[in-house]
Amino acid sequence: MNSSDVLLRDLTDDGVLRLTLNDVGRRNALSEAMLKELSRAVATAASDPIIRVVVLAANGPAFCAGHDLKELTAGRAAGDRGRAYFAKIMDQCSCVMKAIVTCPKPVIAEVGGVATAAGCQLVASCDLAVATESARFSTPGVHIGLFCSTPMVALSRNVAAKHAMEMLLTGEMISASRAAEIGLINRAVAADELQEATMTLARKIASKSSSTLAIGKSAFYAQREMALSEAYDFASKVMVNNMLTKDAEEGIGAFVEKREPTWKDG
């Protein structure tokens, strides 16, 4: 399989980019090749004005099994026992997760199978997630002596501390219904409804002003790390600047005039 084949790309007429993990034999692991292709695809989505929403899906029974442990084990052959290689892979993975969060386009995970370790991190890094009722999630590093420290970053920013710690300390699988209860995913649906449910959500978001979505997504993640007073000061400034955009002027005018807005994405 060529490195580019591990990630399939499909752009719909309404601006939804579907990225499909396609390394089924390795359970869509975040190999060097997969991380490289994901990095390229997210960067392209961020800068391409035609792309309005990104959906991250997967072929096969596993959404993503996390890091490729065979690749990591092979790295131990180096004189430093793999330290430099491990640092490189963890940095590449962290950069992909951060790129998803900072991408100005909303990113939706479409989870049709098991998502474990860094695969669970990938789901948690997306802005929204829809899963099948049979999907399962875990951060199982403790089973093999490797605490899921980097998945912990994304997980702890999605679910309450005690729920995150339970997943991290036990390594046990949780169901899709439980994942929805604790906020790891938005909803669980029947397997034959997964793509339709995800694409309905994606198209609903894609119909909005892309510049407004970019402003809102960036502000959401920025204010979340601030103290309450600082967050309100920051959000008030964002709101003022947003009010001065062409799309806010158009949207408010359309509401007052009882017509559909025509977005200029600016």
TrEMBL record:
Keywords noted in UniProt: Fatty acid metabolism, Lipid metabolism, Lyase, Transit peptide
Top-level taxon: Bacteria
CDD domains: crotonase-like
InterPro entries: ClpP/crotonase-like_dom_sf, Enoyl-CoA_hydra/iso, Enoyl-CoA_hydra_C, Mitochondrial_ECH-domain
Keyword Transit peptide: yes
GO molecular function term, any single one: hydro-lyase activity
Biological process terms in GO annotation: fatty acid metabolic process
Family per record: Belongs to the enoyl-CoA hydratase/isomerase family.
Function according to Swiss-Prot or TrEMBL: May play a role in fatty acid biosynthesis and insulin sensitivity.
PANTHER family documented for this protein: ENOYL-COA HYDRATASE DOMAIN-CONTAINING PROTEIN 3, MITOCHONDRIAL (PTHR43602:SF1), PTHR43602
Annotated protein name in UniProt: Enoyl-CoA hydratase domain-containing protein 3, mitochondrial
Lineage, top ranks: Bacteria, Pseudomonadati, Pseudomonadota, Alphaproteobacteria, Rhodobacterales
